[in-house]
Amino acid sequence: MAGNGIFAEILDGDVFKYYADGEWKKSNSGKSVPIVNPTTRRTHYKVQACSQEEVNKVMEAAKAAQKLWAKTPLWKRAELLHKAAAILKEHKAPIAECLVKEIAKPAKDAVTEVIRSGDLVSYCAEEGVRILGEGKFLVSDSFPGNERTKYCLTSKIPLGVVLAIPPFNYPVNLAVSKIAPALIAGNSLVLKPPTQGAVAALHMVHCFHLAGFPKGLISCVTGKGSEIGDFLTMHPAVNCISFTGGDTGISISKKAGMIPLQMELGGKDACIVLEDADLDLVAANIIKGGFSYSGQRCTAVKVVLVMESVADSLVEKVKAKVVKLTVGPPEENCDITPVVSESSANFIEGLVMDAKQKGATFCQEYRREGNLIWPLLLDNVRPDMRIAWEEPFGPVLPVIRIGSVEEGIHHCNASNFGLQGCVFTKDINKAMLISDAMETGTVQINSAPARGPDHFPFQGFKDSGIGSQGITNSINMMTKVKSTVINLPSPSYTMG
């Protein structure tokens, strides 16, 4: 159970504490933030509403702790990360329970997220030792006009304090994907979890606490974005921001100043289906890509662009699979569970009503009960409909019929998003040409878009983000290069 057993110290009455300077604390504000269960639409948990003063103290502790942590040997950093990963996986059940209650993630998927997160932390520890254990040695005579009078030694050093802001849909996995690279690289870490998913994140942070990381190195502050959001992202102590979420990231980018940014801000991932595609494979991937976790994934299939000649057949195959999707509460491991909030459900409904008004073909009857929206396939969608361009983040998928591959590529590239896309064809030459033409960070060939495995590069173009994620890329972006040059009085060459 959440807040019980080894997690008992993170709960005070019915309000979960925040984590600072190696201790679980109550906010001096005396206020709390309610977390509404998407299924019951009632307050299920409460977290502390931290103040700006408390954020300042967290930042001071983080700066001090980082200086000492940077002097900690790499092997020791890795050892602690491995320990945290083991504790995280051992106590997957209560953390998964939080994911079920806070964000309506199906129970089996919630457990998978926690296990995956432990694996990510361990992999990051190993990769960090390899990457950061190597430097570069350069000699000056490789550049024209120089003798060998200079030796340049380069290494990767920490940035300082990293601010991590994960999204509601993967509040554990997309938190550790920021925490582990920051720590192995010698940084300190301040986590601001999403409101929906905050309690799962607090449980995860306690696993790092139990692993024995130094005080002040890791902090987790909860509260209202309207009160501490800008204060955190514009804080002078922050040396790097890693953010995953929506267009809030664009606002953060404009305010952050001259610090490294890692941003993943969503997508409108297109699925281009050619005439020679295996339609059974396509249909299976559309179901997996478009409807898993009720479509609340940045890498979900968001629009199907199918050649007119095979569109009827594909739509029928997808319709046959949609009716088999189970709909209900996450505790029952249903395929389709409630979306995260009433405002999200209302937004999705607005897109659906716009499509209806403009003549889209409804392959199923639109049905909604509270935050629960039944899966819906919309055929004959046109570019003048909002659903053709906007990200629903729900179990609603538009199908646009195209007359040529060029038309599909044009629609994909006309989007302000550019996260991922996919193409289905048996012709690898066509697939590569289309992949090169698509303005997206990743193109999947004959599979739905996906983030992972977690060591793969993950990046978006245009409004989908800045920088690249994935374990190796994250470690690298959370460091900077330091050079030391040895100047010799006369040229020196090794004769062999």
UniProtKB/TrEMBL annotation:
Keyword hit for Zinc-finger: no
GO molecular function, one term: lactaldehyde dehydrogenase (NAD+) activity
CDD domains, per database record: ALDH_F11_NP-GAPDH
Keywords linked to the UniProt accession: Cytoplasm, NADP, Oxidoreductase
Record bears the keyword Cytoplasm: yes
Subcellular location: Cytoplasm
UniProt xrefs under Gene3D superfamilies: Aldehyde Dehydrogenase, Chain A, domain 1 (3.40.605.10), Aldehyde Dehydrogenase, Chain A, domain 2 (3.40.309.10)
EC primary class: oxidoreductase
Catalytic activity: D-glyceraldehyde 3-phosphate + NADP(+) + H2O = (2R)-3-phosphoglycerate + NADPH + 2 H(+)
Main location: cytoplasm
EC number from the UniProt entry: 1.2.1.9
UniProt superkingdom: Eukaryota
Family statement: Belongs to the aldehyde dehydrogenase family.
Protein name: NADP-dependent glyceraldehyde-3-phosphate dehydrogenase
